[in-house]
Amino acid sequence: MKLGRLNHIGVATPSIADSIAHYRDVMGATDITEPFDMPEQGVKVCFVNTPTHSTGSGHSDSGGTQIELIEPLDENSTIMGFLAKNPLGGQHHVCFEVPDIEIAREAFEDMGKRILGPTRIGAHGTPIFFLHPKDMQGMLTEIMETPREGGHWSN
Amino acid sequence: MKLGRLNHIGVATPSIADSIAHYRDVMGATDITEPFDMPEQGVKVCFVNTPTHSTGSGHSDSGGTQIELIEPLDENSTIMGFLAKNPLGGQHHVCFEVPDIEIAREAFEDMGKRILGPTRIGAHGTPIFFLHPKDMQGMLTEIMETPREGGHWSN
């Protein structure tokens, strides 16, 4: 396996609206996607797009690692436990891209890494799975198939 | 202020050697910098360089958001408290670039954000400061001046 792009860092928040205001008004983000619900995970998410260059020719770019803001939809949300321990929110997971999700899943299984549940469609519309933080240096780690050029992944 | 590049995520580890082996052997990283000591912070650090594209033309690139691995140098290290709570290590901070550290410091101060200590030289050789996690959505946040093209920042 070859290390893929750090697609996003997942950041839990008790209020996605407050977090959007923070990234816009305090940090100066100009490119934040519209929040949407993922009911099967019990979360509402949106993405703060970050630039690949801080200084330079002034051309706009937002192809850097994203910040995924994650708010619980209800009491059964997968992030309720995290927010109980971190009421202000905080860094919840990291997500790396791979070219092929099945090959990656098999590779992590072969290395004895615990995979949390089945492969499913993630917030970018491509297949993803999560790895147990205790097998990943203390970090909940998402593995995501790179979106195909020109559009969404489809089967 | 305009959102800058997500330069790196800081990841605490009880053993930088073990973490390097993890990123190399499990995640497939091919570009990891040599660890070096920062005695004034009580830490040893190195950087895992990540690609900006996972798939594509096969050209090598490593200009993505870095993973900064941080191991304590001694019992007084700034990350001992974090590791006491997270013995396996984990996500410790995030670091965004700004074009001018003094302007950024003044802007955060004007917004009432608590700054932790003086501006100092960080692991990339450019000036940095840290913001209190309680003022930053639960995340310890480092602000770093973008390295000048062609070399290190100098005064």
From TrEMBL, chains A, B:
Give residue ranges for domain VOC: 5-146
**Enzyme Commission number(s) of this protein:** 5.1.99.1
UniProt keyword Transmembrane helix present:
no
The record's InterPro entries line, in alphabetical order, gives: Glyas_Bleomycin-R_OHBP_Dase, MeMalonyl-CoA_epimerase, MMCE/EMCE_epimerase, VOC_core
Which terms are listed as keywords in the entry?
Answer: Isomerase, Metal-binding
One Pfam family hit: Glyoxalase_4
Gene Ontology molecular-function annotations: methylmalonyl-CoA epimerase activity
Q: Does this UniProt record's set of keywords contain Isomerase?
A: yes
Q: Which CDD domains match?
A: MMCE (cd07249)
- Which family, according to the similarity comment? Belongs to the methylmalonyl-CoA epimerase family.
Q: Which NCBIfam families does the record cross-reference, listed alphabetically? A: metmalonyl_epim
Protein's name according to its UniProt entry: Methylmalonyl-CoA epimerase
Species this protein is from: Parerythrobacter lacustris
**Taxon lineage:** Bacteria, Pseudomonadati, Pseudomonadota, Alphaproteobacteria, Sphingomonadales
Q: Which gene encodes it?
A: mce
